[in-house]
Structure formats: C-alpha cells, structure tokens
Specification:
Blueprint (H helix, E strand, L loop, with lengths): L1 E2 L2 E9 L3 H11 L2 E5 L6 H15 L7 H15 L4 H8 L3 E3 L1 H8 L4 H33 L12 E2 L3 E9 L2 H13 L3 E8 L2 E9 L3 H10 L2 E3 L9 H46 L1 H9 L6 E9 L3 H10 L3 E6 L11 E2 L8 H7 L10 H16 L2 H17 L4 H20 L7 H5 L2 H5 L11 H32 L3 H23 L2 H5 L10 H21 L7 H13 L4 H10 L1 H24 L5 H37 L21 E3 L2
Parallel strand pairs: 4-13
Antiparallel strand pairs: 1-12, 2-10, 2-11, 3-10, 5-6, 6-8, 6-9, 7-8
C-alpha cells in the first residue's frame, strides 16, 4: 500500500519483431515504455531531452493518417440526418470482438475511403463557397432589376456617359442634389427608391465629364458595380440562378455519396480511428527512438510485482533481450500508487493535486476517511446520500471503465447518509411535512442544527474537533515519516515541537472558563494545575523553533528573528489557528444545504393546496428543487473538502510534484473489445 517499488530495464529488440513486442507490452500494460536515447554531446543530450519531454507530455507529432481519419469521421458524423442518432453515435462505445477489430483495422481500403470522404467534402465546400459568391452577385443585380436595357449601354463613350448609381440621403438633401444635377446639365431618372436610398440612372455630355466626376465624388453617390456583365440585368440574374441550381444539384449527388459512406463505412471508420489513436505512441516510438541498422533500444519502468511477467516476453520473442539497469543520476523516477480497493477511488483526489515523489509518502489512505467524512458533513443530508448511492449503482452498471468513480460516489453517499441521519437531514425537513419526523428524529443523536441551538453547537464543536484531529494527525504523519527516513532534524526541530505546542495549547484552552463561555465544553475538562505543567513543555518547544526554525540562516540574529516569525506569524500559531477555523466552514456548508432544502420544501408545499394542479407543482418543485440543491452543494462541498486536504492537511507533511507512471496500455476511446 502506498508508492509502488519500481525497477528500470533496458530492452533490446530486433527490428523484425519490434512492433510485435511493443504491441505485447501495450496488451499486457505492465511497463512505462520509452525510446532509449544514447546521450553523447551536449547538443544531442538537449535534443534527446526535448524529445523525451514531448513524449512525457503527450505532445507527439500526430501522423497525417490519424488527422485525416478523424476529419473523415467528423465529416460523416455531421451528415447524420437525425440529430438524436448523431448524439447517440457519439455516446458510449461500440462493442466489438477482437478478431473483427483486427480485420477492420487492417483493411487496405481504409486510407482510400478516407481520402474519398475528405475529397467529396472539400468539393461540397468549394461549391458552397461558389454558391455564396453567386448569391452575393444575385442580390446585387436584384437591386438594379428596374433597369431593363442592356448593360453594354452603360459607360463612358465618345460623346456622352451613362451610369447607374445609388445615393443615400434624406429627402431634402436629395432634392438639393437633383437641383444641382439640373444646373450642371446632368440628366437623371429615379429607377427605385428604398427609404433613404435612391437608385438612379444618370447621363451627361463628355465635355463636362471631369467636372461631373469631381462633383459625384463630393456627394454620397456610389456607382453600381456591374463591370463584366453583358446583356440585360434579367439575363444575368437568370444565368446566375442556373449556375446556382447546377452547383446545388452537384452537391446533392455528392451528399448522397457521403450518405453511402455514412451507412456502409462509418462503423468501420470509428474502429479504424480508435486503432490509430491507440497505436500513436507505438508509431512514435518506432520513428523517433535510438536504433541501429538491426536493433532498437527502449527503457522500461516496471513495478516489482510485475517483473515476473517480463520473463514471458523472452518466451514469445526470440530476438529480444531485457537487462536490469540503474536509473540515471539526475533521472526522475516515476510514481505508481498502490492502494487497497477501499482507498483506490481517492487516488483521483491525489492526482488532481499531484502524485507523491518516488521516495515520498502516499497520502491517499490517510486522507480518504477525512475526505469522505468532510464531504458528508458539507451535505449533511441522508436523502441526498441515498441519491449518491443510487447514482453510484448506475455508474457501476453503465460505465464499466469507471468502477473507481462509482465506488467513490458510493462512499461519499454512505458518509452523507451518516452525517444527515445524526443531524436530522432528510431532503431538508421533508419528513415533517409527511408526518414521519418523529421516526427519523430517533437517529439525530447530535440534534437538528436548523431547529435547535444545541444541534447547531454540536455541529460547530464537531467541525472544530475534526479540524484539530486532522491537523495534528498531519503533524504526526510527518513525525513518523521523518523518523523512518532518519531525518532527525525535521523530527526534533520542526515536527515534535509543534505537536507539543499545539496539543498543550488545546489542553490548556479546555481547562479554562473561556472554553465554557464560548460553549466548546460545558465545564473545564482539565484542572488548572495541568496548565501550569504544560507551560514548561511549551516554552522549550517554542525556544527550539526560535533557534532552529530557520537553521539554514548563518546569521544568528536573522536566524532568531526568522525563528520568531515562524513561531508566531509565518506558518506559526496564527497559521494553525487559521487552519482550525477553516474547518468551521463544514458547518456553514452543511447548514446552507439544510437551509436551501428546507426552503424548497416550504415553497413546494404551499402550492400543494391548489386543487388538481397543485399536487403536480408540488412534486415537480420538490424534484427539481432538490436536484438543484444537490448539484450546487455537491460542487461547493467537493471544492471545500479538497481545499481542506490540499491546504490545511497536506501542508503539514506532503509536497507532491511527482511524475506519474504512464504505463503503455490499450486506450480505446470509441470501442470496447469483448474478448
């Protein structure tokens, strides 16, 4: 349980069986496999390091066939006629036998079909762009449909000029322009008027051509863009419509071709895309790894429990050798977590924060109970916990690859049921409206925080107590971990003094009347004489922190000053006090959940008195209201519970920042192979 022990191996494989060896590793999923790089010069080392970094970050050069296959699949999906079928085709995985999978993946016509699909789609897009251009021309010509003569009559000729144009102006301005036309001997006729737009034909003698051009440039006159057209406007409109219809007919035939591919090939294409994506790391390794003319080299990180499986490779492949090697001096050893089934789901939380470094403690088993309990307190509703349990069953049955998620949801549901029961939360206060509240009240051993002060104070005390327990527990983990690693400076200069100070101060607080006044306890738990004894433990512990809390500082004056800050402000007593108070938010979030649930019930049951329709509104209001409450408070509870682990708990003993072991394995996004 914890961080798995790993061994590093060098794998030498003959090129005749290289791809089969890689596929075998992928099938067995027993090793993190990477191309081996021979490090010689500094420039070669930097280049190889960049390649390894790209491999680690999955920033791989994606082969063109992968891109084209996925593009072809997207094209076919977009041509699904029924939107429901389209959604259904994207949800879930295809169930397929291994033999069929291999046959389809090796079909020699795959690349040809992909090229045809992309080519047809490109032609459709080209035609659509052409249709769009023709429609723009058509719209422009329709503006001048009132002009019935041939367009060859327009232009600048030897004795005169005739032009079409539009003037945008208010009526009074347009009247002035018309008067100016008459003064300048410009003939005009209004072809069409549309609000403030006036479509005109104008004519003038060639002797005043330059003056007219200057004048037209000074007024809002825009000449019609009809260059290149012959015949009448109507002739050109008819011609363009015929071109559009011709292109549309071509596209209809092309779309029919795509629908044939959609019907006959989409399933095979999905499987082929899955095959390509599943093998991208293997193809990358084949192309970029270090090799000679005959052999290739790989490194593998393998769990100690899986080392025996490597022997099978030597049985199946005659020209492959595996040698155990030591890690490089500056090499980062990857981390693989090994936890019992009950703790396994909580690795999701650790992965979000960052896995431990190889020689660091795995916090998963220590964090799991607290996370589930704190989440349950944030919801504090047994009814919502039952919903979580039901949801976990659905996930378990419908999403077979998400068993850990199903178990996590189930555990969180159980703790929510427990927390809700002891604080009388059942879909808010729904039992009181159904007349069965007395039965459920029997389980509320800590009271109802929404209805009684004692219940609220019990919640407050519980949240604060759990905070103290988890923080001190975090210090204890660091204490024993450092002790096992023989890091005695951390044990005696950092961890032990703080355990003494924190525990002593809490005992001293609980022995005072102040603890009674703020209702932490009903009466002092310890006698006043205990405080006098504990002060003699606190003083030397505080002195150790002042003297050695900043022991890396060589200047004693600065060391003592920094040590004093460490004792008080910087990660000191005030910091611990802030940590403890953060846990009170568990109570706040629990009360928010209960408060919203109570409000939903009250509002919904007010509609229940309305004849006939009232009961429908009541039921719908309860269902959707509580779904909303579950959703919003699940998010809040999950985020705050993670924060308590990441900030208040992990900061006491855990750093993280390790590199997760990335085992080469089959990763089918689109299919599920049944054998």
């Amino acid at each position: 349980m914890g961080v798995a022990k790993l061994e590093k191996f060098l794998i030498v494989v003959h090129k005749t069986e290289e791809k089969r060896v890689l596929k075998y590793f992928q099938k067995k999923a027993i090793a993190e496999l990477k191309p081996y790089f021979k490090k010689e010069t500094t420039s070669e080392k930097n280049e190889n390091d960049n390649i390894i970094k790209a491999f680690d970050n999955k920033d791989l050069a994606i082969p063109e066939i992968n891109l084209n296959a996925k593009k072809a699949l997207e094209i076919l999906t977009n041509y699904e006629k029924n939107s429901k079928k389209k959604i259904a085709s994207q949800a879930g995985k295809l169930i397929i036998s291994n033999s069929e999978y291999e046959n389809i993946a090796s079909n020699p016509k795959n690349e040809e079909n992909i090229k045809n699909i992309i080519s047809i789609n490109d032609e459709i897009n080209y035609n659509n762009n052409k249709i769009s251009e023709l429609n723009q021309k058509l719209n422009h010509l329709n503006l001048w449909s009132s002009f019935k003569y041939k367009l060859e009559f327009l232009g600048d000729f030897e004795l005169y000029s005739i032009k079409l144009g539009v003037i945008k102006a208010k009526k009074n301005i347009f009247t002035q322009i018309c008067e100016e036309f008459s003064k300048r001997q410009i003939s005009y006729e209004i072809l069409k008027k549309n609000t403030d737009l006036y479509y005109l034909i104008i004519a003038y003698h060639s002797s005043i051509r330059e003056d007219v051009k200057d004048y037209l440039s000074d007024i809002p006159f825009e000449e019609a863009d009809i260059l290149g057209y012959l015949g009448t406007i109507q002739d050109n409109i008819t011609s363009i419509k015929n071109q559009i219809n011709y292109l549309k007919n071509i596209n209809q035939n092309l779309i029919k071709e795509l629908h044939k591919f959609l019907k006959n090939y989409k399933r095979d294409l999905i499987i082929y895309v899955d095959y390509l994506e599943n093998n991208i790391e293997i193809e990358w390794a084949l192309n970029y790894g270090f090799s000679t003319q005959n052999v290739s080299f790989y490194t593998a990180w393998v769990k100690q429990n899986d080392i025996k499986k490597l022997d099978d490779i030597l049985k199946f492949f005659k020209f492959t050798r595996i040698v155990k090697v030591e890690p490089d001096e500056d090499e980062i050893i990857p981390t693989a977590l090994e936890n019992k089934t009950i703790f396994k789901p909580f690795e999701i939380i650790i992965n979000l924060y960052g896995v431990p470094r190889y020689f660091e403690i795995d916090p998963t088993p220590y964090m799991s109970f607290f996370f589930a309990l704190f989440f349950g307190l944030c919801l504090t509703d047994a009814g919502y916990g039952l919903v979580f349990v039901f949801l976990s069953i659905i996930i378990f049955l419908k999403m077979k690859g998400q068993r850990n998620l199903a178990l996590l949801v189930f555990i969180l549901g159980i703790f929510s049921i427990f927390a809700g029961a002891v604080f009388n939360g059942w879909f808010g206060d729904l039992p009181s409206y159904l007349g069965i509240d007395k039965f459920f009240a029997k389980f509320a051993i800590l009271g109802d925080p929404m209805k009684s002060t004692s219940g609220a104070m019990n919640f407050f005390r519980l949240a604060l107590l759990l905070g103290v327990i988890q923080v001190v527990f975090g210090l204890m983990i660091k204490f024993f971990d450092s002790l096992l690693n023989k890091d005695y400076q951390t044990v005696f200069f950092d961890t032990l003094p703080w355990i003494v100070i924190i525990v002593s101060l809490i005992i001293m607080l609980l022995s005072t009347q102040m603890a009674v006044n703020i209702q932490l306890v009903s009466q002092p738990l310890f006698s006043a004489s205990v405080a006098k004894i504990l002060i003699w433990l606190i003083l030397p512990a505080a002195l150790v922190i002042i003297l050695f809390g900043a022991r890396t500082e060589k200047n004693w004056g600065l060391r003592i000053f920094m040590g004093f800050l460490n004792l008080t402000i910087v990660n000191g007593i005030t910091s611990f006090l802030g940590d403890f108070l953060s846990y009170i938010r568990l109570m706040a979030l629990g009360l928010v959940t209960a408060g919203i649930g109570t409000a939903i019930n009250k509002i919904a049951f007010q509609f229940g008195h309305i004849p006939v329709i009232g009961i429908v509104i009541l039921i719908v209001g309860l269902i959707f209201g509580h779904i909303f409450n579950i959703g919003i408070n699940t998010l809040g509870g999950f985020v705050h519970t993670m924060r308590l682990q990441y900030v208040e708990f992990f900061s006491k003993f855990y750093s993280g920042g390790g590199k997760p072991l990335e085992v080469l394995k089959e990763n089918h996004r689109y299919v599920s192979i049944k054998d």
